[in-house]
Design a protein that fits this description.
Length: 363
């Protein structure tokens, strides 16, 4: 569906409303503020503050380099001590610390990107948010499918979680929609952000014969490795053309500002923040960076525009049959023609974990 809300929204307003100039917000970042992923969150929050009449520099407290361990609990306590009315955390492993803090601070809203654990079912002040980035990845995959000459795509993946698996599956299926002969190889780094590992994995994929490299990892290393080895790249989080002008085709990106603008407005207006929010490509919650017109294949823009229109009207489904796959537990997915797996049906948390035919996980 294209709705930005799920059924599990809170029915009670979070507060009576906080004047825009009195609102204080905490933002927890998993890495350096300058890293593309974290910078996107900062840029989104800046934009949201501006649109809601807030001053980012004085009203947002940023905690960078907060790892997915007790460091996050310490950061949350510091933000609570600073008087934050809402705390936003941007990484998968921050969730348990947000959920541990929330019951003792019912007047503070705890909002977590890419969450899945379920406290949103029982606590009014916990919220998950994400975008249907798999839609943007599907569209970016079309650019890869039309560009490859070896029919081998490579994907540098962070961790074997649904958030990553559904993304690279969507990328592959987008490529396959325009190139039935395409296959894809995946290498995991087991880190969200590690430029050295990302470069090593990208090079291994290139050595495997992959001539388009994509990624779910936080640095530009896969794109620059593609550039240095004469192949092509599809990026994530940022426009990679400046660092890989001869390699980068396009990038899939999340517009975090769409959620932050919405959440801050709720706090100011005294309205409940939806407990599970997931915006679509058609709604602008995710998007593609500018195309590298010098190197994209002929017909790429037209094919992507057609597919995007199909996503918007429902005539294109990303995880559509015929499709077969198997998850880590051996459970099989078998979708016939006309059937499809409806991702994000119950909220923002990705659920697709099947390795589909045509995708090979190398490490």
């Amino acid at each position: 569906d294209a709705d930005t809300t799920a059924d599990s929204s809170s029915d009670t307003a979070a507060a009576t409303g906080i004047a825009a100039d009195k609102l204080k917000v905490g933002l927890i970042l998993v890495g350096e503020a300058a890293d593309a992923y974290n910078k996107n969150h900062i840029d989104g929050m800046r934009e949201a503050c501006q649109k809601n009449g807030m001053d980012y520099d004085s009203q947002v407290v940023v905690k960078a380099n907060i790892t997915e361990d007790s460091t996050c609990a310490d950061a949350i306590n510091e933000l609570l001590d600073a008087g934050c009315n809402a705390i936003f955390a941007d990484s998968f492993g921050h969730e348990q610390y947000m959920e541990e803090a929330a019951p003792d601070h019912p007047d503070v809203q705890f909002c977590h990107a890419t969450g899945y654990q379920g406290a949103t079912d029982t606590l009014d002040n916990t919220h998950n948010y994400f975008a249907k980035i798999f839609e943007a990845r599907y569209l970016a995959g079309i650019a890869a499918g039309l560009k490859t000459e070896t029919n081998k795509l490579g994907y540098v993946a962070a961790k074997p979680f649904a958030e990553v698996i559904y993304g690279y599956t969507a990328f592959y299926l987008g490529a396959k929609s325009v190139n039935p002969d395409v296959t894809m190889y995946v290498n995991y780094t087991n880190e969200w952000s590690d430029a050295t590992k990302e470069a090593t994995n990208a090079k291994a994929l290139i050595d495997q014969g992959c001539d388009v490299i994509s990624q779910h990892s936080d640095t530009s290393a896969p794109a620059t490795t593609a550039q240095n080895n004469g192949v092509f790249a599809v990026g994530y989080n940022d426009d990679m053309i400046p660092v890989a002008p001869d390699a980068a085709l396009v990038s899939a990106r999340v517009n975090w500002g769409a959620y932050y603008e919405y959440a801050l407005k709720c706090l100011i207006d005294g309205e409940a923040i939806d407990q599970d929010w997931c915006g679509s490509y058609a709604e602008g919650a995710c998007y593609l960076s500018p195309f590298n017109d010098a190197i994209i294949a002929d017909g790429t823009k037209e094919a992507i525009e057609k597919a995007a229109a199909g996503l918007a009207d429902g005539s294109v489904q990303v995880f559509a049959g015929p499709l077969h796959g198997k998850d880590a537990d051996g459970n099989e997915l078998n979708l016939a023609e006309g059937e499809y797996y409806k991702e994000n049906e119950k909220g923002s948390s990705p659920t697709f974990t099947y390795i589909v035919d045509g995708v090979t996980v190398l490490s």
